[in-house]
Amino acid sequence: MRLLYIALQENEEALPIIDSIIEDNPSATVRRYPGMVRIEADGRITVKRATVEGRLMRDWDPQELHLHLISIAGNVHETDDEFTLHWGTAEEMEK
Amino acid sequence: MSTTKKLGLREKYRLMTRGLGWETTYQPMDKVFPYQSFEGIKIHDWDKWEDPFRLTMDAYWKYQAEKDRKLYAILDAFNQHNGHLNISDARYVNSIKLFLQGITLSEYNAHRGFVHLGRQFRGVGPRVASQMQALDEIRHAQTQIHALSHYNKYFSGFHGFQGMYDRLWYLSVPKSYFEDALTAGPFEFLTAISFSFEYVLTNLIFMPFMSGAAYNGDMATVTFGFSAQSDEARHMTMGLEVIKFMAEQDPDNIPIIQRWMDKWFWRGYRMLVLVAMMMDYMLPKKVMSWSEAWEMYFEQAGGALFEDLARYGFRMPKYADVSVKEKDRYSHEAWAALYHYGAAAGLHTWIPTSEEMEWMAEKYPNSFEQFYKPRLDYWDEQQKAGKRMYCASLPQLCQVCQIPAWFTEPDDPTQLCHRETEYKGETYHFCSDGCCDIFKGEPEKYIQARLPTHQIYQGNCGGASIEEVLKWSGIEVGHDNLDYLGSDDQKNWERWKHQTAVEKKIA
User: Fold this and answer.
1) Looking at CA atoms only, how far is residue B387 from chain A in angstroms?
2) What architecture (CATH level 2) is domain A3-89?
């Protein structure tokens, strides 16, 4: 198990993001703590702009994650459309 | 300019970092950036540095302003509604006293370090990232002071945090940690603060502790905590990036970085003993134990991290195994010591309630009832008989971490651990092999350490009596210190809660 996680504040604006992450990463484990949600997975976690926009019903920039982020584990790979956490090199991830 | 299409993230990042730098011509670059080479780190191509978040200054201002707006809206609401009355118990407040006394000005010290790097790094990418982090760190210090100023109106221990940070003996633990990093070179500072502290260890301050603040009804602390932590995620990413960047630049860098990782893991782990104590003893409603947090955030998350870094030739920090051996005793040994030095502290200490001890027995099945409960029960009996124990002498501090040498042998929790070494005819004392090794690596640095207890005995701290030393340290004797039982905090809390109960009855 190569544990990765993303932890977000549990608030109104972050809930659609949290739900999108759960939708896009079906094998992830969701842990809920007072005030925060921690999503864990093995190998990779992806946050997709399109999924979040579908839930928020507005344009959403993956950088808006900064407002609700508490912590992460893993290497970060960010584009205009996705925010990805992974282990290994960027080349391995793009395979 | 009449562009209609928004710039892509990559392009914007390139323009807003590389586009802002230049090669100097009036002076050679090596003179403009004089701190670049003395540590032995070799950098061949600064442009290989890439901030994975690709955050640029304009986006930074936008998101930080939004974070502050949210934070201050909640702080206003908290203050206007007397939020301090909704906390679980007034004992809880002591954990945020320790936070303000020990951590807030450490954030300010981190700010100083990053301001320095924001000027001194030759590469534009890390310079911009350091400038943002410098602003983050001063924001953390300021928002923490603002948030906790409300508590200062109602509780002891909040009034003199600046003076205490410089003078109160046990606060030299965080202070010396940050000053050790500040007086290192730029690459070591980044390895110390961005990687070892932010990436590997800071989760243990902000996640379980802030979740604990939420659970204990402290809306102000949880809000500044999570607001700060949203910056930490970026700092952590920078910490990992700097390690990968240095490793990829030159294989000669690897052993230097590994030595820093070993050193700063152990320095940081020792400092976190304060957090271990907060989690297990100072939160009346507990979220998770130190032992569970260490498993989750260090053994599992840190394990995955170092497995990933193995491709560069890095290994787990030295003495990581000792931290695992100590996880069932860390908080208990620390609280026992603080309880005994409770007359010389800027906060209150106490014996846990029987329900809290049941929780500890459940969380620490292999240590609590065997080693720590009998002691707590004995001290409780003594206290009830009017013989509350307060140490009147000063402890032997470790020359490196500056924590009293109260820890026990890694393989025997019943034997005190003590290490010593000679350097230029003087004997130096340590709490552990980890700290002793750090000293041996840089003895000329650590023989200069200012150890508060030595300073007190030398007469440099206000006088010869404990009372004079405490006054000099910014403590109001009889108000800020001693046991929680009988304290002004306890009396006020009971009065306020009683008042609330009466008002409810009338309504």
Assistant:
1) 39
2) Alpha-Beta Complex (3.90)
